[in-house]
From TrEMBL:
SUPFAM superfamilies: Periplasmic binding protein-like II (SSF53850), Winged helix' DNA-binding domain (SSF46785). InterPro entries: LysR-type_TF_proteobact-type (IPR058163), LysR_HTH_N (IPR000847), LysR_subst-bd (IPR005119), WH-like_DNA-bd_sf (IPR036388), WH_DNA-bd_sf (IPR036390). It comes from the Bacteria. Belongs to the LysR transcriptional regulatory family. GO terms for molecular function: DNA binding; DNA-binding transcription factor activity. Residues 26-81 form the HTH lysR-type domain. Keywords: DNA-binding, Transcription, Transcription regulation. This is HTH lysR-type domain-containing protein.
Length: 323
């Protein structure tokens, strides 16, 4: 007599398990990890250029496949459940292993592919990189670039960037930095401003002028070098901004004196739209050094495709420096 316990053929159980496992895709795991990093479904959706409603449906699909509730949800944020935390650790390891095997295979085949997330400050994005990145993309068509331009410091690890191109100071100890160039800054202003306010003859004359200042780049003190002498001068900003592009335009419009890279304003200086001020004083940092152009990457394993881009940028920019 039958025991009353239903049994299923082994083949059916295996097929059912395979079906559930196949529904857990790398796409879903990436979304899951992005939600944890962003702290909300909406924030993760923005990072991935998806709608919050689509992201919500996909997370529901993942929860159904894993048969656990991953998040405790509120209207503004999400919090991992205990099973969700276990699943998150597994998802991170799975994604990393998947990334590693793809990277190892790409390296063996010398065929780099995938997305590289890059943070570039406005100076580098304006002056150096557009033609270089265009040529790189043509040479390596299977690599895709996700580029953010910002003059604010970025945390490569926490914000998920693979690489940064940064102009300015020596990078922090938490990243690896390759210095590929250095550049000079000049004090400059529009002829209309100088006609209205007069031309400074000495550093101290800046006290009587409107200074246009970069907020993350020595906003309160400007440093100069004259021969071996280092001069520090306190600045009272008239206008303060976190982007060099706005400083350039405000200087062109005659709003004050700005300190800008000679490479950025060389055409303005040549045309007379801007005039160099105090050319005998070299703009430097507090340690007397000139600003540098840096390639930065996290102090951890660097993916093959990212190494390819690092080597490419370093080679092109160093060649440009020597030419």
């Amino acid at each position: 007599m039958a025991s009353g316990i239903s049994t299923y053929p082994r083949e059916s159980v295996s097929a059912d398990r395979a079906k559930r496992e196949s529904s857990v895709s790398m796409e879903l795991l990436r979304l899951f990890c992005e939600i944890v990093d962003a702290g909300s479904i909406a924030g993760a959706a923005r990072r991935l250029n998806a709608s919050p409603s689509l992201a919500t449906r996909k997370i529901a699909t993942l929860e159904k496949a894993l048969k656990v509730r991953l998040f405790e949800r509120t209207t503004r944020s999400v919090k991992l459940t205990e099973p969700g935390r276990v699943a998150w650790n597994w998802a991170k390891a799975t994604l990393q292993n998947y990334e590693d095997i793809n990277d190892d295979l790409a390296s063996l085949l010398a065929r780099p592919a995938g997305v590289i997330r890059i943070a570039i400050n406005h100076f580098a994005a304006t002056v150096y990189l557009p033609p270089i990145l265009v040529n790189f993309c043509r040479e390596y068509p299977e690599i895709r670039l996700s580029i953010t331009t910002t003059d604010s410091p970025v945390n490569l690890v926490q914000e998920g960037y693979d690489l940064a191109v940064h102009s300015g100071r020596v990078p922090d100890a938490g990243v690896v930095g390759v210095r590929v160039d250095e550049f000079q800054r000049v004090l400059c202003a529009a002829p209309a401003y100088l006609a209205r306010r007069g031309v400074p003859k000495q550093i101290g004359d800046l006290d009587n002028h409107d200074c246009l200042v970069h907020s993350t780049n020595e906003p309160k003190n400007w440093f100069f070098r004259q021969g071996k002498k280092l001069i520090a001068h306190a600045i009272t900003p008239y206008i303060e901004t976190d982007t060099h592009l706005l400083l350039i335009e405000m200087a062109r419009q005659g709003l004050g004196i700005a300190r800008l890279s000679r490479n950025v304003v060389k055409d303005d200086l040549a045309s007379g739209r801007l005039v160099e001020i105090l050319p005998k004083f070299e703009s430097v940092y507090s340690n007397g050094e000139l600003p540098g152009l840096w390639i930065l990457y996290p102090n951890r394993k660097v993916l093959y495709r990212t190494r390819v881009l690092i080597d490419y940028l370093a080679k092109v920019l160093e060649r440009r420096q020597l030419s």
